[in-house]
């Protein structure tokens, strides 16, 4: 499968839209401290089903919603949509293109969609099982955590290897 | 399951040594199953030797050496079970410029099978990029993304990192 | 003891806000005693607001913003009880160049009362140095130190970081 | 007090001597990854009485002794000597200059000296009590630990403030 693009609204510091097209090869994201680079990777982590606020660098999930600035009001909800090219069929749904999206409201209410159809969170995490994609694979490396695999307990490392086999 | 794990483990172990030697320009690295009798419950230990130094546990490694070793191990695992895409957030933070360049060149070998999305502050990593997105906060606290043109398409000036026999 | 602690706390709290504003060029920062009734057993919470953003806990701060905030707090404490010397090992690792420059300029204000020994890879930090030692391994695995001449004594080109009212 | 210089023999990667003169102001230590910069600050930490191998990035204390390379034999012991200018009398001994040194042998045997006189480890840590110098003050910031003060539990932070009062 390939990652095609991500669109977000009201996600963290991206008050309006964030649209990122990912092509083949290497995409670099650059900018000054605090401008929002890591926030964009939090969006991917979240839409793939991350449930731990700590892993998303927030105190509670509602803090993912744009919280306003000195001259702009907070948003009432956030949505992240990510689109995959599934031509090779590695995602077990009969579509050439698959869009996964997730919404969160200030009330704490959540909604999940696959190709516009409402689903449960579990359907999203099941979709990515065994594809090497997901919040527990080592394919989403958080800032400051590059040597996590070295610090992991020897047993945790074995589990990572087991996952690869 | 035990057989499958041991086959995968052996592949990762060999990839790790090969990738370590490429990124360090020599030396060697090894993985050891601590409890041969009960492999699926065992821990995995890491030993490595930068060129000219002694084989040791990774505890006394420098910050940059740990990052490089972690990168070598992660890529060893990716070679066995490639994630379709990989988000790396400032994995080059502890590296000096010579090592960032080696890391960027290592990426060139993997990008045909994996989409890399890399957050970085470093120009040597950017030199490997196929596309560049700049994140800014023109309005304080509000992030926006801009597609950035390359003055340099120096992707073609980066030579792949040679194998070290 | 309670009175003495509260006096020191208040000093650190004011230093923290002032130093934060200098290094961020604005915004504000605060410390809060969580349990006013039992100060000597209480925790201390940190709140901060980079310019234009909202006051919040430091959880959602970026890597660079966290480093800057930590530096501001450490220097706030140094102002109350100066260590005669201070070893800082790559505290600038997460900072973009503009912020490394601000950090280097902040050092100029403290160096009269504290000897700073700073390990760095960054040229902007080196620009603040009164002397420079280069560590190398001509023979692999064996470290030696060389006193390095400055081509630039640009210590005098660095202007101190202004106070922000 | 002022830090005048440090001399080591057989300490970690500094197989021979390491001599560093510290003047007033800012001393920068630079060099490629793994060349020995952080090792030099480990030497200061150790001679001031650090007893945790983890804090010195070793598995056991004997690993502080130069362990050899492919063309050089290991050393049998290590010694670190640090000299302070005590003109202001902040160290409670009646000397204008105070040399603290520490030795470790492969056997595990340790020796401690203040101005060439054999002492116990406790005499060294007592000497620095209340001077703002020591392994528990925030004046020795390890690589990767700049934001330790932000991650510290609120109660630990209060203890740091208490120490400053
Ligand atoms: N819900 C939210 N609403 C508004 N702003 C937010 C929200 N969540 C996080 N932010 C802001 O996002 C900023 C951090 O962004 P991010 O971590 O992406 O920075 P970065 O570009 O990765 O920087 P660095 O290079 O320092 O790592 C913080 O200033 C934080 O205040
Ligand atoms: N007892 C020892 N004998 C020989 N070499 C040692 C010993 N202890 C540590 N080393 C070596 O010292 C090196 C690490 O040095 P150090 O941590 O000072 O690097 P550094 O200059 O800080 O690098 P970086 O910029 O990556 O942080 C390692 O390669 C390690 O093998
Ligand atoms: Mg970041
Ligand atoms: Mg180091």
Written account of the structure:
The complex is a heterotetramer, with two copies of chain A (165 residues) and two copies of chain B (165 residues). With 165 residues, chain A is α+β, with helices and mostly antiparallel strands. Helix content of chain A is 21%, strand content 31%. Chain A has four helices and eight strands. Chain A has helices at 37-47, 121-128, 148-151, 154-164, and strands at 2-11, 14-21, 26-30, 77-85, 97-105, 110-114, 117-119, 140-141. A six-stranded antiparallel sheet of chain A has the order 2-1-4-5-6-7. Chain A starts with a strand and ends with a helix. Chain B is of the alpha+beta class and 165 residues long. Helix content of chain B is 36%, strand content 21%. Chain B is built from four helices and seven strands. In chain B, helix 3 (97-110) links the parallel strand 4 and strand 5 (115-119). The two termini of chain B are 32 Å apart. The mean pLDDT of chain B is 91. Chains in contact: A-B, A-C, B-C, B-D, C-D. At the C-D interface, helix 1, strand 2, helix 2, strand 4 and strand 5 of C face strand 2, strand 3, helix 1, strand 8 and helix 3 of D. Residues 37-38, 143 of chain A line the site of one magnesium ion.
């Amino acid at each position: 499968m390939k990652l095609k693009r991500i669109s977000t609204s009201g996600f963290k510091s991206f008050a309006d839209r964030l649209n990122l097209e990912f092509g083949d090869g290497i995409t670099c994201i650059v900018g000054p401290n605090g401008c929002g680079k890591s926030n964009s990777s939090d969006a991917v982590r979240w839409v793939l089903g991350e449930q731990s606020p700590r892993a998303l660098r927030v105190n509670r999930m509602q803090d993912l919603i744009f919280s306003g600035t000195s001259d702009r009001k907070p948003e009432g909800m956030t949505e992240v949509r990510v689109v995959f090219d599934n031509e090779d069929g590695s995602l077990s749904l009969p579509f050439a293109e698959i869009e996964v999206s997730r919404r969160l409201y200030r009330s704490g209410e959540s909604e999940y969609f696959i190709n516009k159809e409402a689903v449960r969170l579990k359907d999203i995490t099941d979709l990515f099982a065994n594809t090497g994609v997901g919040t527990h694979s080592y394919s989403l490396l958080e800032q400051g955590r590059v040597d996590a695999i070295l610090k992991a307990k020897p047993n945790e490392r074995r589990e990572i290897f087991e996952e690869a086999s | 399951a035990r057989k499958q794990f041991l086959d995968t483990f052996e592949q990762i172990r060999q990839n790790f040594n090969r990738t370590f030697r490429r990124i360090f320009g020599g030396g060697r690295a090894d993985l050891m199953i601590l409890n041969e009798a009960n492999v699926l419950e065992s821990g995995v230990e890491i030993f490595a030797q930068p060129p000219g130094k002694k084989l040791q546990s990774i505890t006394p490694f420098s910050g940059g050496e740990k990052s490089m070793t972690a990168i070598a191990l992660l890529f060893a695992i990716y070679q066995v079970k490639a994630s379709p895409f990989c988000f790396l957030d400032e994995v080059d933070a502890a590296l000096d410029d010579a090592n960032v360049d080696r890391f960027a060149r290592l990426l060139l070998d993997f990008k045909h099978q994996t989409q890399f999305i890399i957050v970085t502050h470093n120009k040597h990593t950017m030199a490997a990029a196929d596309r560049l997105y700049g994140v800014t906060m023109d309005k304080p606290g509000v992030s926006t993304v801009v597609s950035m043109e390359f003055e340099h398409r120096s992707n073609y000036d980066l030579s792949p990192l040679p194998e070290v026999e």
